[in-house]
TrEMBL record:
Keywords: DNA damage, DNA recombination, DNA repair. InterPro entries: ARFGAP/RecO (IPR037278), DNA_rep/recomb_RecO_N (IPR022572), NA-bd_OB-fold (IPR012340), RecO (IPR003717), RecO_C (IPR042242). It comes from the Bacteria. It comes from Adlercreutzia shanghongiae. SUPFAM superfamilies: ArfGap/RecO-like zinc finger, Nucleic acid-binding proteins. It holds the Pfam family RecO_N. Belongs to the RecO family. Residues 6-79 form the DNA replication/recombination mediator RecO N-terminal domain. This is DNA repair protein RecO. HAMAP family: RecO.
Length: 255
């Protein structure tokens, strides 16, 4: 009897080798849940799957239910995002997005904003210059954290709820483990490190702006890196080990 099939639009996050010629795809489905599927023969040179199952491809899939993993039967490319694989800087900037999506998404746990936001971010990064790609990456990492219930508190003390003014040139205590800024009165009881107020303003800007606005706005490399470090601290405190692709970005000497 033929296996039942179903259609799925998905973003390819990662692929791993299976046997001689197959791949296991880690996918972010349109509903934001994570799925894994086998693309049989995808590593053969003439496979029609090869170019359609690269990381960052958005694909309309036809999948057959398998015993453990579902099997990719057909794949139609919706968006290739070629530049994110071929451009060195663009690739380094976009890899943390795929890695974090792979870490926070879960099987059978719908979170549609993850998929919508990732597609918009990758579309914007595909057309952006390298400096804006970095800013868009920082923006998307913060948005992914926010959609996963980990939105940092940037203007209100996480200890007492008092408003904190972000004065230009000042630094503000920030506690990754408590999820945000800390006032002077609460500081002694919480594990906090000083962060430039400017970095917190950039983070706020990234969280509240659309990707089109970020792509058209200012792109300050050092500000983007500061926000990426902030995102890495939040990942380390709440998601688990730091993102490897971000560690690479920090030490690569790119940008
Ligand atoms: Zn406080």
């Amino acid at each position: 009897m033929a296996q039942p099939t179903y259609a799925l639009r998905a973003l390819v996050l990662r692929r791993t080798k299976l046997g001689e010629s197959d791949l296991i795809l880690t996918l972010l489905a349109e509903d934001g849940s994570q799925q894994r599927a086998v693309a049989k023969g995808a590593r053969k040179p003439k496979s029609s799957f090869a170019a359609r199952t690269e990381p960052f491809c958005v694909v309309d899939c036809l999948l057959a239910r398998g015993r453990s993993l579902d099997i990719l039967k057909e794949a139609r490319l919706v968006a290739a995002h070629d530049h994110l694989r071929t451009g060195l800087e663009a690739s380094a900037a976009s890899a943390p997005v795929a890695e974090l999506l792979g870490r926070v998404s879960q099987r059978d746990l719908a979170n549609p904003r993850l998929f919508q936001s990732a597609c918009r971010a990758l579309d914007a990064m595909e057309g952006a210059d390298d400096n804006h790609a970095l800013a868009l990456s920082a923006a998307e990492l913060l948005k992914i954290l926010a959609f996963s219930g980990l939105r940092p508190s940037l203007e209100v003390c996480v200890g007492c709820g008092d408003a904190i003014e972000l004065t230009e040139g000042a630094s503000v205590p920030f506690s990754a483990i408590d999820g945000g800024v800390v006032c002077d009165a609460c500081r002694s009881g919480l594990e906090a490190v000083p962060v430039d107020a400017a970095t917190l303003c950039w983070a706020q800007y990234f969280l509240t702006s659309t990707f089109n606005a970020v792509a058209a706005g200012p792109a300050d490399i050092s500000a983007s890196f500061s926000v990426l470090h902030l995102a890495q601290d939040l990942v380390r405190a709440h998601v688990g080990s730091p993102l490897k692709s971000l560690e690479f970005l920090f030490t690569s000497g790119l940008f």
